[in-house]
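Thread: quick sanity check before group meeting

JM: Hey all, I'm pulling together slides for Thursday and realized we never actually wrote out the predicted structure for the chain we discussed last week. Dropping the sequence here so it's in one place. If anyone has concerns about the input, flag it before I start.
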Amino acid sequence: MRHRGLTSSSSYEEEWPRCRDEAFAGPAGVVARTIEPHSEADPGAIPIQTIVGDLSRLAQRLRSAYHLAVTLLRLGCAMRRVGGSVEAIEAALLAENQHCCDPPKEERLVCALARDITDRYEPKESR
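JM (edit): ok, ran it. Output follows.
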């Protein structure tokens, strides 16, 4: 691939640096080799763009999973604060898990969270 100089009056051409074959290894390389014949993008940029896109989607999933875990924790703690029993907290967390989590967390993990909340925190005394 050749690159023309920045000005239209320039009469020189210089060779773009070429990526080593190792840059096209793995799934990102397969995507790059598939897209390359149909794209005007720099062949070396395609694997990088693929990896950045994958990392972005992974980060979004992690943020979503973290948000749901925090939501379940806050709900359980709020219920415990007003005197919720382990059974009541389990039922509420399981319902919220089914309603909000995609895919839902394992039931045993949700129940373990409810038990942990009731073991760690005492109900707040009413004034």
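AS: nice. The chain has four helices and two strands. The first helix runs from residue 26 to 35.
JM: adding both to the slides.
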